[in-house]
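Name: Flagellar biosynthetic protein FliQ
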Amino acid sequence: MSPQFVLTIGRDALTILLMIAMPVLGVVMAVGLLVSIFQAVTQIHEATLAFVPKLVAAMVIFAIAGPWMVSTLVDFIRRTIESIPSVVG
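Structure predicted for Flagellar biosynthetic protein FliQ:
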């Protein structure tokens, strides 16, 4: 196993991680910003008002993008496992 191969697998893993995390993080960040603006305008500072919408948005994104996330992870894992014989032998 060459150092180049290890670095390639690590880079691919980080790329897949970012691709999978971005939809959820982006939507939760946008919802958090909107809730913060709403709280600042109305001067309502309730902790559940900040938490619940972000939780609901994350669940909706997982429901919508979940199959894509799982298939992307399965493809990466399949490629990694299938490359084991070429690395060992």
